[in-house]
Design brief:
Elements (H helix, E strand, L loop, with lengths): L14 H33 L7 E5 L4 E5 L7 H4 L7 H12 L8 H29 L6 H29 L4 H15 L8 H30 L6 H37 L13 H12 L8 H44 L1
Antiparallel strand pairs: 1-2
Length: 348
């Protein structure tokens, strides 16, 4: 067979390159979305101050973090006084009075948790998706299955780290004390205790992931078709990411509300003087029934607008940056292949 008749092997983006692209996306998303949540929390605090020994949930669209008000000496969003008239006023006053770096309060723990979780998630999704597409004829439902498996893996790996990080944040602990805490928890509650909160997280994140990736692929193809583009551009990926993220956010919001309730109420219960006097509902279904009984069905969709404001741009920035990174590495691999091929021809 002649060399001209041989189909060229198109170089694929390697797992390491996918990891670098997803890492870059996670960092960029955290940098751009964190100020929105800092301002939102500062506005909430001035209207409803957090009392001592209370906690609140911080989420920037990539990760959730539980913060404690009595350990807040370096947490600018509730340490400083408010008196903001609105979102823009809060941005301007925080920058003028506290410095622009205050807009990124809480960024370090976000990066520590979000970067490894995002790297695992996106790399696993791409690898599994490519494998399945090479094995099946109908690729329609591949994003759903790949998204489910990738998210299950990421949540399972990160859950114990999140528990340990939350414990370190609630009280200053040395590494020796932290090691003792983990040992005591394992001896009293077993290994399964390290994955507390895994169930509501999975019930929220796995359906989100399945819907997100399926809709992302559908919207991406539709936008390419209507724009007469053979390959999706940065703008197409950004738009598809925002649209699919919005749909998935609305559909999975009840589980997000349950997860928030479970994390915050359980911590307050364990750190109160009334431990053992009250029964705290821990199952997702029981918490849902409690919310509906108290606030109605609308209570399951509390915080819809703030969630959309955070999650939609976070999804858009993350996936468009990730796809841009993969495209960059793909072009670099093509150049290397062309140089290698031309070198072989010159040698012949």
């Amino acid at each position: 067979m002649d060399a001209e008749q041989t189909a060229p092997v198109i170089p694929k983006v390697t797992p390491l390159q996918q990891m670098i692209a997803s890492c870059t996306g996670a960092i960029l998303t955290s940098l751009m979305v964190t100020p929105l949540d800092v301002v939102k929390i500062r506005l909430q605090v001035q209207n409803n101050p957090y009392p001592k020994r209370r906690c609140f949930l911080y989420c920037n669209g990539l990760m959730d973090h539980l913060y404690f008000c009595d350990e807040g000496s370096n947490k600018a969003w509730y340490k400083k006084p408010g008196r903001f008239r609105g979102t823009l006023d809060a941005f301007l006053k925080i920058i003028r009075n506290e410095g622009i770096k205050s807009l990124w309060s809480g960024l370090p723990p976000t990066l520590v948790m979000a970067v490894p979780a995002t790297v695992i998630y996106f790399t696993c999704y791409d690898q599994l998706s490519s494998f399945l597409k090479s094995k099946v004829e109908n690729e329609t439902y591949v994003p759903i299955f790949a998204g489910i498996v990738a998210r299950l893996g990421a949540v399972t790996v990160i859950s114990p780290l999140e528990l340990i990080r939350t414990k370190m944040q609630s009280k200053a602990l040395s590494y020796k004390e932290l090691h003792l805490f983990v040992r005591q928890k394992l001896s009293h509650d077993g290994w399964i205790s390290l994955w507390r909160g895994w169930s509501p997280t999975v019930m929220r994140d796995v359906p989100f992931s399945a819907m997100y990736w399926y809709n992302f692929e559908v919207f991406k193809k539709w936008l390419c078709k209507n724009s007469d583009k053979y390959e999706p551009t940065f703008g197409i990926n950004f738009t598809a990411g925002a649209m699919s993220g919005s749909i998935a956010s609305i559909a999975t919001l009840p589980f997000d509300v349950v997860k928030t309730q479970k994390q915050t109420k359980l911590w307050r219960y364990e750190n109160s003087k009334d431990v053992g006097l009250h029964t705290l509902p821990t199952s997702t279904w029981d918490i849902m029934k409690q919310i509906v009984a108290k606030h109605g069905v609308s209570g399951l969709f509390a915080g819809l607008i703030p969630r959309l404001i955070k999650v939609a741009p976070a999804c858009a920035i993350m996936v468009s940056t990730y796809e841009f990174g993969k495209s960059f590495f793909h072009k670099q691999n093509l150049k290397k292949q062309e140089l290698h091929t031309s070198g072989c021809i010159d040698l012949k």
